[in-house]
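In practice, a research group might receive sequence data for several interacting partners and want a quick structural hypothesis before committing to experiments. The following worked case mirrors that situation: the sequences arrive first, and a predicted assembly follows.
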Amino acid sequence: ADLGEVEARVSVCAACPRLVRWREDAAREKRASFADQPYWGRPIPGWGDPEPQILVVGLAPAAHGGNRTGRVFTGDPSGDWLFASLHRVGLAIQETSRHAGDGQRLVGTRMVARVRCAPPENKPTPAERDACAPWIQREVALLLPTVRVVVALGAFGWGGALEALDGAGVAVPHPGPKFGHGVEVEMSGPAGPVTLVGCFHPSPHNTYTRRLTAEMTDEVFLRARALADL
Ligand code: SF4
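A structural hypothesis for the assembly, expressed as tokens:
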């Protein structure tokens, strides 16, 4: 399979009944402020450079963010924070990511969610997490020839990244290294070294409380950029 085929296939996945209901209900009952917009209401494929040096791994789409716009991290507060940082460090050509036709483009970077459907309260069940694992694994395996750095957002993204890298033939240590902001793990992969970098998730909870500041976010992506030689 190639990346386009994986994107097409994941877009129609219906393996998790609770999430299928949730994503479709959110689309049907879309907020009045989105009433005039097309509403995706399906799984969210990876997005960005098809041959990236940097891969960003998030948790899952937001109900009225990616689930609405059809593009990962697009149209919700976490995405606003993330894209602003990527723009400041030169990895995104615009500072905002509002909708699929806004002209935004990532530079040498691709983003994926570990779980591809919006879960209630941003909490997939362990069974849903495991059901979705093959999607990120397929994508990471296809991207590994070029990926040098994986930035994991939060412990959930970190776990998904380690699992997917392991499945794609990267020498992941067992037991897996612990997540932390700024933690780096260099591993050898089939096409050269791959460094996993941890970053607190840019959720409103973390950014409003200043657990994650703009400076801390920029530092991680500047480091990723340097590691990726971009
Ligand atoms: Fe399919 Fe993943 Fe969505 Fe479950 S979460 S329905 S496995 S795309």
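Before designing any experiment, note the following. Residues 10, 13-16, 19-20, 43, 115-117, 128, 131-132, 135 surround iron/sulfur cluster (CB under 6 Å). Residues 51 and 143 are 6 Å apart (CA to CA).
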